[in-house]
Design goal:
- The chain has 144 residues and is α/β, with parallel strands linked by helices.
- It has a single domain, classed as Rossmann fold (3-Layer(aba) Sandwich), CATH 3.40.50.9100.
- 37% of the residues lie in helices and 18% in strands.
- The chain contains 5 helices and 5 strands; from the N terminus they run βααβαβαββα.
- It has a 5-stranded parallel sheet, sandwiched between helices.
- Strand 3, helix 4 and strand 4 form a beta-alpha-beta unit.
- Helix 2 packs parallel to helix 5.
- The chain is globular, with a radius of gyration of 14 Å.
- It binds 1,3,4-trihydroxy-5-OXO-cyclohexanecarboxylic acid.
- 1,3,4-trihydroxy-5-OXO-cyclohexanecarboxylic acid binds next to loops.
Length: 144
């Protein structure tokens, strides 16, 4: 099974960035956690700080049919990006949005997810476990 794990802006700064909200694990450590928790999954990990690049990665996923599922954390673009939402709408494989922090327990502008509305589900507030549960959800959906 091939799963694309896509991370958006500022998530490359995990480890340094606001540990009270996001914990102390770096993005690389989160990726390693997923690799060891799911040793039968082939992961592709991509991170970008640029909205257009994230859109293009999603287009590639749609075109290539190389992936069985998508786990995505679009960072702040979650709350603003119609472009990412439109790109995600084309994704036909299982797609789960994840957040380290609980977007419903923070500033009001974070509780709206433009992108999550077109995903199959959203897992938010469980730290690194949000990613693990996101992968679990994709696997169950592929096997259903
Ligand atoms: C985040 C939540 C977003 O509101 C924020 O902009 C992020 C990280 C999270 O994982 O908790 O960059 O997506």
């Amino acid at each position: 099974m091939n799963i694309l794990v896509l991370n958006g802006p500022n998530l490359n700064m995990l480890g340094k960035r606001d540990p009270d909200q996001y914990g102390t694990a770096t993005l690389e450590q989160i990726e390693d956690t997923l690799k060891s928790a799911f040793d039968d999954v082939d992961f592709t990990f991509t991170q970008s700080n640029h909205e257009g690049e994230l859109v293009e990665v999603i287009h590639e996923l749609v075109r290539s049919s190389d992936y069985d599922g998508l786990v995505a954390n679009f960072g702040a673009y979650t709350h603003t990006s119609i472009a990412l939402r439109d790109a995600l709408s084309m994704v036909e494989v299982p797609k789960i949005e994840v957040h380290l922090s609980n977007i419903h327990a923070r500033e009001k502008f974070r509780s709206k997810s433009m992108t999550g509305e077109v995903c199959d589900g959203i897992i938010t507030g469980l730290g690194v476990d949000s990613y693990k549960l996101g992968v679990d959800a994709v696997i169950s959906s592929v096997r259903a």
